[in-house]
Amino acid sequence: MTGETVEMASGAAGTRAFGPAGSAGLPRVLPPSPVRDLRGHEARHGRPGLRGTALISEVERAGLTGRGGAAYPTGKKLRSVRERAGLRGSVVIANGMESEPASAKDALLLAQAPHLVLDGIALAAEAASARSAYLCVRRPVQADALAAAIAERDGYDPVPVQLALVPERYVASAESSLVRYLNGGPALPGFTPPRPFERGVRARPTLVSNVETLANLALVSRHGAGWFRSVGTASAPGSALVTVSGAARHPGVYEIAYGTPVRDMLALAGGGGEIGGVQAVLAGGYFGNWLPGGAALDTPAAPDALRAAGASFGAGIFLVLPASGCGLAETARVVRYLAGQSAGQCGPCLNGLPAIADALEEVAFGAGGSRGGHGRALRWLRDLFGLVEGRGACHLPDGVARLAASALRVFADDVRRHERGPCLAARGRPVFAIPSGPARVAEARG
Ligand SMILES: Cc1cc2nc3c(=O)[nH]c(=O)nc-3n(C[C@H](O)[C@H](O)[C@H](O)COP(=O)(O)O)c2cc1C
Ligand code: SF4
Questions:
Q1: Which of 120, 191, 347, 415 is the most buried (most CB within 10 A)?
Q2: Pair type for strands 239-246 and 317-322
Q3: For residues 439 and 222, which has the higher predicted lDDT (pLDDT)?
Q4: Residue of the nearest CA to atom 3 in ligand 2?
Q5: CA 208–ligand 1 middle distance (angstroms)
Q6: What is the H or E stretch that residue 208 is in?
Q7: For the chain, what is the radius of gyration of the CA atoms?
Q8: 152: phi > 0 → left, psi -120 to 50 → alpha, else beta; which?
Q9: Any idea which ligand is nearest the CA of 440?
C-alpha cells in the first residue's frame, strides 16, 4: 500500500492505496506512482495499438462497461455514435466531473495517469468519427494540471482535446447536463429523448464516457480483449476503481478485480478487526442502496452481483457503517444534501425531495413519543416515494427515493426503536462526511 494522501470530493482526506501490486495483474489503470508526462506514459504503456472499427469490435469482445455508474456496454455506445456520425462527424465527452461527494477515483486517475485518459479520449474520438472532443472537470486545480498534459500532446492526437471547466453541482455531471453546458446552456439535466448518442453537442451524436472507462479503452487498444478479460468475472470483466470511506481504517481509492468479495475489498481498506463490526454498507454512493453487513460482505463487488443483491456498484463507491453508527441518521443527512442539489426544474424534485428529507429527519431525529409524528412521517415517506419516482428529467428523485427506501428496509429494527426518539448514535458525530455544497439556486451559467 502506498501512503499518499488525496483529497476526497467530500473534503475528507483519504489515503490512496492499491490492491497488492502485481497480484492478479493489478493495478492496471492506476500506476504505482504518478506518471504525469507523456514520455513516462509511453515508457510505461507503449503506444496505442488497435484503432477505429477494429478497436470498437475489440472493446465489444472485451465486454468493457461504463465505470461512471450505469455499467452500460462501451462498445455498443461507441458503435451507435459512429453509425450516426455521418459526414459532419460526432462529438466525444470524457466525463471527469465526479460530482458524487463520496467518490475520489476519477480525480485520482486524472492526477496520476492523465495521458492514459487522454489516449482513451483520442482513441474513442477516432473510433466514433468525432470532430471534437471535450474533457469535463469541475475543479480549477484539475483543469490547470490537465491543460499542461494536453499542451504536451500538441499535434499528437487526430482530434485535439478541449478542456471544459463545468460549474460544481451534483446533477451537473449527468450526461445531458454536460451536453447542455457545451451547447451554451446551464449545466443542468435536459429532458430525454433524444439521448446524447442520438443528438448531443451542436446536434451531433455524442459519446459521453467516464474517464476510467476511457483509460480502460486505451488499455484494450494495446493489450486486447483476452488480456482485459484475464481479470474480473465472465459477466463483469476487468478491474474497477473503488472509493471506500466511512468506518474504514484506510479510506481511499483501490483498484480491484471485478468480483472481489466486498469483505476482501474492505480488508484492503483496513482489514481485520473492524470488518467484524460492519453494520451495513452503502454501495453505489449517495445514489446507491444500503446492504446489511453480513449480506454485503459476502457479495462480489461487481455491477451484476450487487444488482442481484438489491444494491448497485454505481461508480464503485462503498461507505462503511460501523456497528456503533445510526443508518437512519446517516441517510437523513445524505438525503438532505441531495435535496439541496435539486436543480429546481421539475416539480416533483423541487418539492418532493425536501419533503422526503423532512420526513426522514422526523424518523431519524424526531422526539417520538405519543404525538404520532413518527408514524405519520413513515406513511408520508411511502407516499412520497411513489410521487417522485420516474418524475424528474434526471434520476435524482429516483436515487433519493431508492436510498431512503433501502434505509427503511435495512434499518427496520432501528425505525421501530426510533419511535421512542433518536438513539444515542443519531445524536453523536456523523460517520459520513457531507459536503457543504452549493445550495439549490436557479442555475447561472459559468
Ligand atoms: C445525477 C447524475 C450524476 C452523474 N454523475 C456522473 C459523474 O460524476 N461521472 C460520470 O462518469 N457519470 C456520471 N453520471 C452518469 C452519466 O450521465 C453517464 O451515464 C456516464 O458519464 C457515461 O459514462 P460511462 O458509460 O463510461 O459510465 C451521472 C448521472 C446522473 C443521473
Ligand atoms: S429531476 Fe431534479 S435535479 Fe433532475 S433535472 Fe429535474 S429538478 Fe433538476
A1: 120
A2: parallel
A3: 222
A4: 342
A5: 8
A6: strand 206-210
A7: 22
A8: alpha
A9: 2
pLDDT (mean) for 78-100: 97
**CA of residue 191 to ligand 2 center, whole Å:** 9
Question: How do residues 270-319 score in pLDDT, each as one tens digit?
Answer: 854 455 589 999 999 998 999 999 888 899 999 999 999 999 999 999 99
Q: Which amino acid is at 374?
A: H
Q: Whose CA is nearest to atom 22 of ligand 1?
A: 209
| Greatest pairwise CA separation for the chain in angstroms | 73
**Which of 65, 80, 95 to mutate for ligand 1's pocket (most ligand atoms within 8 Å of CB)?**
95
pLDDT at 20 over 50: no
pLDDT of residue 249: 86
- Say yes or no: CB of residue 339 within 6 Å of ligand 2: no
Q: Which domains does the chain have, with CATH numbers?
A: 24-229 (3.40.50.11540), 239-322 (3.10.20.600), 327-427 (1.20.1440.230)
Which ligand has the shortest distance to the CA of 173?
A: 1
CA of 173 to the centre of ligand 1 (A): 6
Long-range contacts of 385-391 (CB under 8 A, 24+ apart): 385/356, 387/348, 387/352, 388/348, 388/349, 388/352, 388/353, 388/356, 391/346, 391/347, 391/348, 391/349, 391/352
Name the burial class of residue 435, with classes exposed (0-12), middle (13-18) and buried (19+) by CB atoms within 10 angstroms of its CB: middle
* Per-residue confidence band for 200, with pLDDT thresholds at 50, 70 and 90: very high
Can you give the pLDDT at residue 271? 57
* 392 Cα to the center of ligand 2, angstroms: 5
Q: Please give the distance, rounded to the nearest whole angstrom, from the Cα atom of residue 124 to the centre of ligand 2.
A: 29
* pLDDT score recorded for residue 329: 97
